[in-house]
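Re-running Large ribosomal subunit protein bL17 to confirm reproducibility after the cluster update. Everything else is unchanged from the original entry.
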Amino acid sequence: MRHNSAGRRLGRTTSHRIAMFRNMVTSFLQHEKITTTDAKAKELRSIAEKMITLGKRGDLHATRQAAAYIRDKKVVTKLFTEIAPRYTERPGGYTRIIKLGIRPGDNAPVSVLELVEAEMKPKKAAAKPAKAPKAAKAAPVAAAAAEEAPVAEAPVAEAPAAEETTEA
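Result of re-run:
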C-alpha cells in the first residue's frame, strides 16, 4: 500500500532525486525557465513555489532555509531581491507548465516550466451593475446585423455586372 507516500520517485534513489531537484531548482531560478519531462516539471513546480514563498517572507531564517536548498549564493540573492518582490501580491501560482510534446530520442513527454510574468490584479468586491433584460440586448445585435447585411450584398451585385461586360 502507498499510504503517506506522496511524490514521484522517478526511478531514482532518494539521494539522487534530492540532488537532482536541488540542481534543477537552482537552474530554474537562475534562468527563470527550464525544459524537462512532464513528471519532473510537476515535482519541480512545488519545490520552486516553496522557494519563492520563502523569498516573499524575506527574513533571515527564510534566507537560510533557501540557501540550504539552493546551491548558488548568487541565485539565493536573485531570489530574494528580484524574483520574490514580483510576486508580493500573488498568493501562489508563481509558475506555469507548458507542454511541448514528445522528445524524439526516447518519446518522453517534455514541457517547459517558467515563471508567470503577468501581474495579478486583486479581485475587487465592487457591486456589478444590474443586468439589462435579454430582449434589450438582442435588439442592438439585430440592428447591427441588419446594417452589415446590405454591405455584404453590395459586392455580390457588382460581380455579375462585371461578368456581363466581359461576355459582350
